[in-house]
Amino acid sequence: MAYVKWTLIALWWIVVLSFLHYTLPQNDIARITDTYEKREDIGANALFWTRGDAGAAQADSRDVFFIQTRRAGDDIMVYRNEDTGWGWPPFFKFDSSNLQAEAADLRSTAEAPRWVAIRHYGWRLEFLSVFPNALSIKPVAGPDVTIIPWRAIFTLILMVAVFWAIWVRWRRFRQARIDPVLDQVEDSFDDATDGLRSRRKRLTDWFRGR
Q1: What's the pLDDT tens digit per position in 119-162?
Q2: Residue 31 phi/psi, 5° resolution?
Q3: Cα 42 to the center of its chain, rounded Å
Q4: Of the candidates 169, 189, 190, the residue with the CA atom closest to the CA atom of residue 178
Q5: pLDDT tens for residues 2-54?
Q6: Which pLDDT score is estimated for 52?
Q7: In the chain, N or C: fewer CB atoms in 10 Å?
Q8: DSSP alpha helices (H): ranges in 74-149?
């Protein structure tokens, strides 16, 4: 039973950490090699796409902006560029067209690189055709620039504070309201058990003629 308990706990934390890693914004240092627009038929991987540009008709087939890059470690990364609108994650992004124009203006070559910091969320899953969603782009001095993810750090601190406050209030409520009731129920069961034992003993003694 202990194995089941710890397996469930491990699965719970895997789900929570995966959700946070997917949702919280991250920064990549890269140079933009190209930008393009492609028709996408959203299918089994619909969970990893937004619902299209804010204000546009929602459809399972639509044009999506993409940004091709080569990161500082020479790895290739492709980002989609979609509005999040009022949906999840709550980044309230409505400027995907403007961001695409900005990305196109920052394209560069290996001979004359222009490095940028791309803030994004999501994963690149090639076998599912899943792409991280670019949120913003800003020029940086070079490939070795360190970007501290203040938004992600602040969000984590806020989440820990909220969960801690809920946990503390739950413990106080349980100790003040639930535990006394459970103790009373347990005492009632103990009293009932003792009464049954006493009656059974008297009945046994009566049959034995004591």
Answers
A1: 999 999 999 899 999 999 999 999 999 898 888 899 889 989 99
A2: -120, 140
A3: 21
A4: 169
A5: 788 788 889 999 999 999 999 999 999 999 999 999 998 887 888 888 866 66
A6: 65
A7: N
A8: 96-105
Alpha carbons 67 and 30: distance in angstroms, whole number: 11
pLDDT in tens, 70-96: 998 889 999 999 999 888 888 999 999
Largest CA distance in the chain: 109
Give, as one character, the DSSP assignment of residue 82: -
| 130: CB partners within 8 A, 6+ apart | 45, 48, 122, 123, 124
Vertex 99: Cα angle to 94 and 105 (nearest 5) = 165
Distance of CA 66 to the CA centre of its chain: 23
DSSP annotation of 110: S
CA atoms within 13 A on the CB side of 76: 6
Tally the residues of the chain. 210
Q: Whole-prediction pTM value? A: 0.77
Q: What separation, in Å, do the N-terminal and C-terminal C-alpha atoms of the chain show?
A: 47
3-state secondary structure 183-210: HHHHHHHHHHHHHHHHHHHHHHHHHCCC
Contact (CB, 8 A) for 136 and 94? no
